[in-house]
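Okay, is this right?
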Amino acid sequence: MKLRILLLTAMSTLLYPQLQAQQLPYKDSRLTTEQRVNDLLGRMTVEEKVGQLSKLLGWEMYEKKEKYVGVSDKLKKAVKEQHIGLLWATLRADPWTQKTLLNGLNPIEAARATNAIQRYMLDSTRLGIPLLLSEEAPHGHMAIGATVFPTAIGQASTWNPNLIQRMASTIALETYAVGGKNGYGPVLDLARDPRWSRTEETYGEDPYLTGKMGTAMIRGFQGEKLGQQDKIIGTLKHFVAYAAPDGGHNGESVSFGERSLRHYFLPPFEKAVKSGAGSVMTAYNSIDGIPCSANPWLLKDVLRKDWGFTGFVVSDLLSISGLNGGHATAATAEEAASQSIHVGLDVDLSGSGYGPNLLKAVQQGLVEPAVLDTAVARVLRMKFNLGLFDRPYVDEKQVIQKVATAQNKSVARAVARESIILLKNEKNILPLSKSLKRIAVIGPNADNAYNQLGDYTAPQADGKIQTVLTGIRAAVGKGTQVDYVKGCAIRDTTNSDIAAAVAAAQQADAVVLILGGSSARDFKTSYQATGAANVDPNTVSDMESGEGFDRVSLDMMGDQLKLMKAIQATGKPVVLVTIMGRPLNLNWAAEHIPAIVNAWYPGQEGGLAIADVLFGDYNPAGRLPISVPRSVGQLPVHYNHTKPKHHDYVEMSAKPLYAFGYGLSYSKFEYSNLQVGLTEGADDFVCTVSFDVENKGSVTGDEVAQLYVVDEVSSVVTPIMQLKQFERRAIPAGKKERYTFQLSKEDLKLWNATNAWKTEKGKFKLLVGTSSDDIRLKGEMELKKDY
C-alpha cells in the first residue's frame, strides 16, 4: 500500500503541470475567443510572442525512417530557441525542397507527421500552443498523393464559379485530412504581361472575373464559418499588383496610381476579403516606390480600415528581409522588422525577417509592445477560431477516404473539361471520328505527365497522370491504331526527330499535335532562396514558364514551330492542342492549322478531358480569361484598357489574336430580344438586363453569356468597356434560355477626382455578347442622378 501511495504521489507530481495547464482559462473552450486570446497573451514572454509570428519552412521539421515518421531535431531546436508559431509547406515535395516519392510523405504518413508535430507542441512546450500549418494549395494540395487540378488560368477559363467552389472544397478536404489548416491561394493578381513567369497562377486580366473566382475559392476553402470540419482558411496572394511588373520581371516594381489600383487591382482582393478570407500575403514588389511589405496605406488604410479585414497578414518568403536587401528602404534587419510590423504585417514567412531581428527591435525600442501584442493576438485568434487548441490532431484512419478518391478525380476531370477552349475549328474538323483507322499523336506535350501539371506540383506516382496520349487511346476503340512520336522537346533542339514525326503523320488519317510550354521543375535546375527557379543558359530543360522563368518573347521555343510546319506540310488534317502556362504566339497556327484547342495546364485528368473534347464526348465552352497577343510589341493588350481606343500599328492590328472572353463551341448560339429595365431609388438603382439565347446546333452545349458596360461620359477616364456580369449555362439543342443580369451602383462606381467612390449620372452602353469582341446585342440606360 505504501509503495502504491508513493507511485501515485510521483505520478501526480509529474502530471501536475499538465493538469494545471488544462485548467487555465485559454484552454477552456467554453470561453469566448477574445477571453482565451487575452488570457494566453498575458501569460506569454516577449520571446514567445515574437516566436508566434515566425513561420518556418516545414519540410525540414519531420523525419522519416522506414515506417517511422516523427518530429526532427530541427523542429525541436526551432521550438526551443525561437518558440515558433507556424510552419509553411510541411508536406511540400518538389525539386526545390528535395523531397521525392521516396523521402517525402504519402498521405497517411503526412497525417502521422502533422500529428507528431502537434503532439510535440502540446506536450513539450511551456504553454502548449499548437502550430498553424500552412500548405501550398492553388490547384490542389502540393503534397504527394493529392489530387492535381488545372492551374488557375485554366480554372478561370471555365467561367464557372460554382464549379471552382466545388474544386476548392475538395482541395480543402484533402489538405485538412493530413493536418493542414491554411491553404495558400487563391492568387488574385491581374495578369497584364504574359512575359511574367507566373501568369499560369492567375485568373487572367479582368478584375470582375478574378473577383468571382477568388470568392468562389474562399467559400470552397472556408465554408460558412471558421473551424468547420474539412475546411481551411485561404491566403490571398499577392497584395498587390504583383503580376504587372516592369519588363515582365518577377518581383520588380510597378508604377500604377491609386485610381488604377482601386479600379483594377484591389477589387478582387476586396471581394475575397469581404467573403471572409482568413489571411492575406503581401507581394514582393514596390508600388510607386513603397514596398508592399512596408506599405501603411495598403495594409492599414485599405485592408483593415476600408475593408474591415480581421485575419492576419503574412509576408511572402523573405520579403521582410527584402526591405534591407533588394528594396533598400531599411538600413538594418531590425529596421526592416520594425517597418513591416508597424504597418500591420503580422507573420514572417521564413523566420528570418522577424525572429531575432524583431526581438532586438523590441528590446531597442523600435517596436512598441502594443504593436507586437496586436500582431500576436491576430495569430492566436485565428488558431482559436480554427479549433486548433481543442482539436489539434487529425484522424489518420480517415485519410484514405478523403484524399485522391474517385470523387475527387471526377471533380478534376470536370474542371479540366470546362477549362478547355476551342480557338479554331475550320470546316468543323472537330470532333474527330472514333472510327478513324489511324491517328498520329505527336509533340513534346503529348505524353509528358509533368508538362501538363504546372508549377507548384508535387512528384506523381507512375500512371496517375492521364496524358493526352493515354486519353486518346482510352477514347478510341481497338479498331483505331494510335501512333506516338515526340518529334522534339519544348526547348532542347539536340534530340529532335522531326522526320519520324512526319513519317507517322503521313501514315495517319488525322494528326493531333500537342505543343506549348512547361512549368515542370526538375533536379537539374537551381533555385533561389525564395523558391523561384534560376534561369541558367547551361541547363536546358522543358521549363520555360513557372516562377522565375520570365520571357522576352512569347514564341514557342525549341523546334516546335519547325515541327508544326513540317506536320502541316503533309496535308493531313491537323488538330493543334496547346498545353501551356501563358499565352504563346499562335499567329502561324491560326493562319495554317484548321483546328486549335487550348488546354493550359489541365491537371492530372487533363488527357482524358482533352480526348473528351477531341472526339465530341464533351462540347467545349471554355472562354479566354486573358487576351492572346499577336506580338509582345502590343503589350499590354488587355481588353479593358482606359480610353481612348487603340489605333493600329504600322505592322499589324492593335487587336489581340484572340480576345478576352473568346471561345468556340460545337453548337451555334443566337442572341435576341434584349430588354433593359431601370428603377432608380433614393440610395441605389436596379438595372435589369434580359435576353434570349438559342442553341441552333444539333448538340447540347454551354453558352457563356457576357455583359459589358461602357460609361459614355465620366469625370475621370474610364475603360473602353468593362465586364460586369456573366453566366455559363447548358442549353439543349434547339432550345432557348432567358438570361437575366442585374446591375447596381456598386457595378458602375468610379474613384473620382476628389478621391471618393461615386456612381455618376449619365448614359451607359450595355453590350451583350459571347466575348469582348463579339457583341451580339446593344442597349443603353441613363441614370438621372448620382449615387
In short: The chain has a mean pLDDT of 95. The chain has three domains: 28-401, 420-626, 669-783.
